[in-house]
Please model this.
Amino acid sequence: MKSTLKRTAALLFLSTLTIVSGCSKKTDSEKTGSSTESSVSSTPNRYELQSGIVYYEPMVIMGIKSVSTLYFDDYGRRESRETVTDSNIMGMKSHEKKVDITDGDYMISYELEKIVNGKDETSKVATKTDLKKFREMAMQMGKGLDPEQMKKDFDYREEGSEVVAGVTGVKYSVALNKDKKEQRAYGVLYKKIALKTEMGGIMIKAAKIEENASVPASKFEVPAGYTIKEIDLQKEMAGPGKSGKE
Model:
């Protein structure tokens, strides 16, 4: 459960960075009502590409290697992030493949593979998290505030351009804490897609991007045989001592 919360929090944080850095511009697709329905009506376009696949460079931290791939469709309203992690620490060898799907107002996370010392320990439980409240907060950040004031608060800076994965994106930096503007996150956005993010000494960088790629619908579906468990993100983040309180 803790790993699920950490991944969810990290993805929400990256989404917030994208909103801050892109808040000064709205695309035509954001202004028009759109051709999609129901949950989509409350979810704005995240990206300026209809679909795509982003392959990220491997990261190695303390002997743990991870590689992630992002699949998205419908301008980012549906996306799936697959992360493969391999480690061999103190005689324990493991291979894991985890999937985080965001579809409208929900995130679903599950293990596709988990092999520990040759033994299959894959959990067949997928967690489903309602992100509506967090999306509403993010939307208010992007729409309810004056973009220039928001940029000022986060000390947003465009720092030219940078080529990542063969395309030229906007290089930017934002303060992680508006009261400590020296603590910054850096990144490169291409059509609002995060191709590079640096914070706390960790860098996530794209190696390749396929624009307007045909993404199989199965990438946004939980495989057969899994049980879906709904979780309340706010209660889980509050901790067991507060779970019974309103």
Residues 2-232 form a domain with the outer membrane lipoprotein receptor (LolB), chain A fold (CATH 2.50.20.10). The mean pLDDT is 80.
